[in-house]
């Protein structure tokens, strides 16, 4: 946990040794850190995945975001903090829509934006395009897509959509959904924390 600019940065990471054990306790440890962080910086809590490295992998941003959101709801302190997610995972309208739908007030898809800048430098997006223009167009497109997603559900404002959790979980175990995606509809079973850990290892490799 790091203090930065009046907010608290919560590093969502796991050590690779003993990962199956670590991933089971990491969301719960993160909840305690987030709860304690309210006393230090009640204005905002920022999830980051920048800390990943050779010996570390990260908890999926949606799992971390939803776990903290639901924990604070259960503790009655959710309105005391805003959740800001900076992650390399979001790169589509759906991925950002789910993060907002599970409590993120803002999302920084830094890897997507950096990739666009690199594509401009390589000349893959045309000679006249600048990195700022490419990033602005992507941001505008995602914003329009998010508004379209909201409108299909009859929601007209982002505050009404943020944390509404109006999704159905497909392919997640009931125990995982109950603990970290509380209240989300799920009709079929699926993977739990061990399988998610395997996926994190595979992506890290």
Low-confidence stretches: 1-28
First-to-last CA distance: 25 Å
CATH superfamily: Aldolase class I
Largest sheet, if any? 5 strands, mixed
Instruction: Return the CATH topology.
Output: TIM Barrel
Q: How many domain units?
A: 1
- CATH uppermost class: Alpha Beta
Radius of gyration: 17 Å
Shape: globular
Number of strands: 9
Helix content: 40-55%
Which structural class matches the secondary elements? alpha/beta
SSE order = EEEHEEHEHEHHHEHEH
Percent strand: 15-25%
Q: Record the strand order, biggest sheet.
A: 1-2-4-6-7
Instruction: Output mean pLDDT.
Output: 78
Quickly give the CATH architecture: Alpha-Beta Barrel
Number of helices: 8
Spell out the blueprint of helices and strands:
Elements: E1 2-4, E2 7-11, E3 13-15, H1 19-40, E4 44-48, E5 56-58, H2 61-75, E6 82-86, H3 93-101, E7 104-108, H4 110-121, H5 131-152, H6 158-161, E8 168-169, H7 174-180, E9 185-186, H8 193-204
Parallel strand pairs: 2-4, 4-6, 6-7, 8-9
Antiparallel strand pairs: 1-2, 3-5
Q: How would you describe what is shown here?
A:
This protein has one domain: Alpha-Beta Barrel (TIM Barrel), CATH 3.20.20.70. 50% of the residues lie in helices and 16% in strands. It contains eight helices and nine strands. A hairpin with a 2-residue loop joins strand 1 and strand 2. The two termini are 25 Å apart.
Spell out the key features of this protein.
205 residues; TIM Barrel; two-stranded antiparallel sheet; alpha/beta; single chain
């Amino acid at each position: 946990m790091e203090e930065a600019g009046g907010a608290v940065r919560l590093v969502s990471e796991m050590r690779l040794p003993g990962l199956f054990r670590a991933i089971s306790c990491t969301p719960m440890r993160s909840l305690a850190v987030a709860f304690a962080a309210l006393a230090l910086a009640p204005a905002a809590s920022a999830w980051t995945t920048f800390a990943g490295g050779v010996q570390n992998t990260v908890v999926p941003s949606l799992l971390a975001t939803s776990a903290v959101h639901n924990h604070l709801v259960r503790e009655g302190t959710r309105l005391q903090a805003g959740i800001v997610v900076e992650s390399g995972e979001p790169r589509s309208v759906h991925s950002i829509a789910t993060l907002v739908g599970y409590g993120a007030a803002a999302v920084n898809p830094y890897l997507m934006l950096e990739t666009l800048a690199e594509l401009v430098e390589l000349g893959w997006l045309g000679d006249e395009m600048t990195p700022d223009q490419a990033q602005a167009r992507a941001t505008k497109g995602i914003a329009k897509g998010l508004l379209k997603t909201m409108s299909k559900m009859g929601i007209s404002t982002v505050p009404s959509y943020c944390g509404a959790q109006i999704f159905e979980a497909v392919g997640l175990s009931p125990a995982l959904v109950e603990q970290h995606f509380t209240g989300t509809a799920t009709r079929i079973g699926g993977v739990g924390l061990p399988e998610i850990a395997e996926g994190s290892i595979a992506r890290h490799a």
